[in-house]
C-alpha cells in the first residue's frame, strides 16, 4: 500500500492542477497520463515542480500482514494503519519540512466524520476536510492519488523484477518469461492466476504477498494449501521447563544441553 500527500499554494489549487494539467482521480487516468504527470512533478523548471511538493509512505505486504494477523486483541487493522500513515505524512510536511499548511483534504477511510474528528484532535490548528471520493472532488487529493499510484506501480515493477531474477537463477529455462502478476486486485484474472501458479503449498508466497488478504487466505486454507496445526503455547512457559534438573536426570547422563549453557556459580575470580 502506498499513501501520499500533495501540497501547493492555495491560489494554485484549481488553476494549476485542474485547469492546466487536468489532474483527476488516478483510477480514471491511463498509466501513460499518470506517468507523464509524475514526470512533470519531478522535472526542474516545470510549473508543477516549482510550485508543488509531495510525500509518500509505503507499507509493505509483510508490514500490513504482521499488523492484521496479530493474535488476540492486538490486531492492527488496515484502517488503523492507514490512519497512522496519514498522520505521519502530515507531520512530515508540517513539522519535518516546515511547510505552512492551512487546509488539509483527505479521502476517507471508513466514516468521514469519525476520521475527521480524530485528525482534528491531533492537528487542532489545521482546517481538515475528510470526504468520500475526495480524489475526484479536490485537485490536490487527485494529485496525491497520482503520486501514490505511480510510486506503487514502480515499486511493484522492481519487486517483480527481483522475483523473476530469483526464479531464473533457480531455473534458467524461465529466462524468457514475461509472466505478469497483474494489478493486485482480486477482480484481476492475471493477479489470481499468478497467485495460483506461484503458490507454495506450505509457505504460500514471499514478502510480495499480503497473507491477511482474503484472496490469499482462501487459496492457502481452501484451495491446495497444506493444513498445519500449531500447538498453543502454555502461558508462563519458561526455558528451564525443557531442561532436566539434577534429580530428574538419568544416571550417567552428561546433560549436554545444561553443560553447553553453563551453570550458575557464586565464586568470584
TrEMBL record:
Signal sequence interval, chain numbering: none
EC number: 3.1.26.4
Reaction equations catalysed: Endonucleolytic cleavage to 5'-phosphomonoester
Domain RNase H type-2: 1-225
Gene Ontology CC annotations of this record: ribonuclease H2 complex
Coiled-coil segments: none
A family per Pfam: RNase_HII
Comp. bias (Polar residues): 168-181
CDD domains tied to this protein: RNase_HII_eukaryota_like
GO molecular function: metal ion binding; RNA binding; RNA-DNA hybrid ribonuclease activity
Keyword tags: Endonuclease, Hydrolase, Metal-binding, Nuclease
Cofactor: Mg(2+); Mn(2+)
Protein name according to UniProt: Ribonuclease
Species classification: Eukaryota, Fungi, Dikarya, Ascomycota, Pezizomycotina
Amino acid at each position: 500500500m502506498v499513501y501520499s500527500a500533495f501540497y501547493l499554494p492555495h491560489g494554485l489549487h484549481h488553476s494549476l492542477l485542474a485547469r492546466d494539467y487536468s489532474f483527476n482521480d488516478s483510477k480514471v487516468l491511463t498509466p501513460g497520463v499518470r506517468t507523464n504527470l509524475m514526470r512533470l512533478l519531478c522535472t526542474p523548471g516545470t510549473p508543477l515542480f516549482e510550485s508543488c511538493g509531495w510525500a509518500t509512505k509505503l507499507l509493505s505486504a509483510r508490514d500490513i500482514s504482521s499488523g492484521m494477523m496479530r493474535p488476540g486483541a492486538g490486531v492492527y487493522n488496515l484502517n488503523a494503519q492507514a490512519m497512522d500513515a496519514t498522520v505521519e505524512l502530515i507531520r512530515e510536511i508540517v513539522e519535518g519540512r516546515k511547510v505552512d499548511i492551512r487546509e488539509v483534504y483527505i479521502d476517507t477511510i471508513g466514516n468521514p466524520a469519525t476520521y475527521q474528528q480524530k485528525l482534528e484532535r491531533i492537528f487542532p490548528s489545521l482546517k481538515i476536510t475528510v470526504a468520500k471520493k475526495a480524489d475526484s472532488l479536490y485537485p490536490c487529493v487527485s494529485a496525491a492519488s497520482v503520486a501514490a499510484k505511480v510510486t506503487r506501480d514502480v515499486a511493484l515493477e522492481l519487486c517483480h523484477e527481483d522475483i523473476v531474477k530469483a526464479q531464473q537463477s533457480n531455473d534458467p529455462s524461465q529466462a524468457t518469461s514475461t509472466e505478469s502478476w497483474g494489478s493486485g486486485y482480486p477482480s484481476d484474472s492475471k493477479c489470481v492466476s499468478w497467485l495460483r501458479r506461484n503458490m507454495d503449498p506450505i509457505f504460500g508466497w514471499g514478502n510480495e504477498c499480503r497473507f491477511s488478504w482474503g484472496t490469499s487466505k482462501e487459496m492457502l486454507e481452501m484451495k491446495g494449501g497444506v493444513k498445519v496445526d500449531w500447538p498453543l503455547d502454555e502461558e508462563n512457559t519458561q526455558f528451564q521447563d525443557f531442561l532436566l534438573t539434577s534429580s530428574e536426570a538419568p544416571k550417567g547422563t552428561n546433560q549436554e544441553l545444561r553443560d553447553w549453557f553453563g551453570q550458575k556459580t557464586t565464586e568470584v575470580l
